[in-house]
Amino acid sequence: MAARCWARERTGGRPAGDGVSLARGVATVGGYTLASRVLGFLRDMLAAAYLGAGPVADAFLVAFKLPNFFRRLFAEGAFNSAFVPIFAGMVARDGRVAARAFAEDAMAVLLAVLLALTIVAEAAMPHLVALIAPGFRDEPGKLALAIDFTRITFPYLLFISLVSLQGGVLNGIDRFAAVAATPILLNLCLIGGMIFLTPLLGSAGPALAWSVAIAGVAQFLWLAAACGREGIALRLPLPRLTPEVRRLGRLMLPAALGSGAVQVNLLVDVMIASLLPTGAISYLYFADRVYELPLAVIGIAIGTALLPMLSRQLRMGDEAGAAETLDRALEAALVLALPATAALLVMAGPVVSTLFERGAFDAAAASATAAALFAYSLGLPAYVLVKVLAPGFYAREDTRTPVRIAVACVAANTVMALALMGPLGHVGIALATAAAAWLNCALLARGLARRGALRLDARLRRVAPRAAAASLAMAAALALAMHAGLSPRAHGGAMRWLALGALVAGGALAYAAAGVALGAVSPRALLASLRRPQR
Fold first, then answer.
1. Tell me: the pLDDT tens digits for 522-531?
2. Do the beta carbons of residue 125 and residue 151 sit within 8 Å?
3. What percent of the chain has pLDDT above 90?
4. Sign of the C-alpha dihedral, residues 245, 250, 253, 256?
5. Distances in Å between the alpha carbon of 303 and those of 90, 161, 288, 459?
6. By CB distance 3.0 to 4.6 Å, which of 35, 262, 266, 274 could disulfide with 135?
7. b/e per residue, 22-55, with b = 16+ CB within 10 A?
């Protein structure tokens, strides 16, 4: 009763289930994520100009990859997938006070574990870096740089993991904006570091490393203030393993692999790419940054909004409603991911050239990065669908099924990457990652279908092929426009940016027109889904 009264109070008298629609949540998270990614591109453009694709760039990217890998695998991945269903369920069933007490106990235990992990990692850093970048052993200078940079960046894991907990609390009460805006601070810190710290430290490498550490503190303080504004500020009690915290730990262990399959695959990419000539890691990184824009704006946004909604529906026994919610999430994912995939496949070269080809990042590096982007983009729909399908397991507190799927996908990715790197170099690694993503998607879908949680209703079956056809029409229009001389590569300076902007805008209009004509997109339904339900 307390939870229901609080939910009505927070939503102007409506029941909790009506608080924020899936579409509104996706729009909020996606909008802030888009802003963050735009800043991220500015950050990467500066990094490409400052660092190029040489040994300092490779060393920093490995240093940035290690804490980011643990963050995505354990903090954002395993922790969120286990914490949010428990927290959202407690809010709906037991009330806000009990849910906050659970969050505080979880934070105390998490902090103790993270402090121990950070101390051990700092002591063992030479071995950790050599493990994730074995090819650096043959280049002592690059290895030493990577070790130094990683020792500076690794404490970021501690702060960003606490940020993940705070974000889970806010997402669990349908407050998405502050959490979605958090990555903006990281990009601002990195941009500021390159501009202001590089002259002081003499190189962009250490400037970027220290900027990562500073960003972790800034993000933690930002969400601490956001929790305070929502009246759910978290205190730090002494660590204690309450029954709820033990339950969280049991769910987290398998979820560490289940929700982190894509991240494990990307780490395998780095390990194998370190065996290739200098530049391979940088090519894969910059290609990854481009295709992660639609992945974040679409897949992560939908998954973030979907998990607490599914958790509440299932706690209330509404299996039919949960199935309907998952179908609508899959529909939105396909309607948005398919045109993004088609656009990246057609425009990989112009996009990379416009974004990164300047300073130390020459035409050869741009061409190599574009080839990796094309290969990664083949798996973009799968990456997005994985983000949508995984919450179907986590909302049911099933983290064991995804872990079995993850192990199979990581093994497949490793075998394919090793097989393809010989004939195709770094492009083979990207192709292996795309193929592993499709395998992950297929196995997750099969697992949900077997338990009756994935129904693929008539509306979804009608919309999906029409969205694919509209995407093909858009791709054809883009190809014709580029052939007619609108390619950014045919221009220089500001005209290159204008040409790219024109292609993006024209492609969006072409897809919208084809989508409406074919019945894949309904403007009226979209506007209706963005409105709060009225009672």
1. 766 655 544 5
2. yes
3. 28
4. negative
5. 20, 19, 19, 20
6. 274
7. bbbbbbbbbbbbbbbbebbbebbbbbbbbbbbeb
